Structure formats: structure tokens, C-alpha cells
Model the fold of this input.
Amino acid sequence: QVQLVESGGGLVQPGGSLRLSCATSGFSLETAHIGWFRQAPGKEREGVGCISSGIPSTYYPDSTQGRFTVSKDAAKGMVYLQMNSLTPEDTAVYYCAADRQAGARSNMCSWRRDFWYDSWGQGTQVTVSS
Done:
């Protein structure tokens, strides 16, 4: 059974940091891309970064480049999202998702194409506020 479970969300002050974790099971991180996405109230879901299968490469939109870092421990089935210099605009529910067709599709993950991702976690709330 494919599962992704996010954890690590919470309340943080502006300028602070938070690390989210995504525990995966039922598939291998060697063959699946993992994306991180977020959705704020009243806004569309947006990608914040992704990490490719196998030898990892990471990709980010301009809004998170230099502040967010995606990493993984394939042996443990864990993916992480390190978030630094947080602002209130980063407040959202954060989701990790798996693209298990990665090998047939592209060597590069995509934070733009959420429709590539076939399995999603339940999300974890991140609130940035003083």
C-alpha cells in the first residue's frame, strides 16, 4: 500500500525555520520523484520544490529558491523539506506527493506539474505568525 505521511508542521515566527518530514512506504524513492506542494486558504495549490528519483536533483520556484531545501534518505524512505527565512506568505497546508511514473516520464521532477503526482499525503499545517 502506497503511503505518504507528512509531519513537522506548526507555528513559527517570521524569519524562523521549520523542517517538514515525509515518511513514504509502498514504493521506492529510487524510482519515484517526490514533490512538495502547499495550499493556502483561498489560493490554488502551488509547488515549492521537488527531488528526483535515483541520484537526486532538486528544483524550486523563484518563491522558495534559496530558502527551501528538499532532501531525502532513500534507505529510510524519508523526504525532508527544510524551510528557512519563513514569512507569513508561507502559511499553508504543505503536502508531499509521489510521481511513481518518474522512470518512464522524465529524469527531472517537476514542481509545476502537480498532475504528474499520483499519490499524496494528508498534509501538515504551517503557520508563520508573530
Summary: The two ends are 40 Å apart (CA to CA).
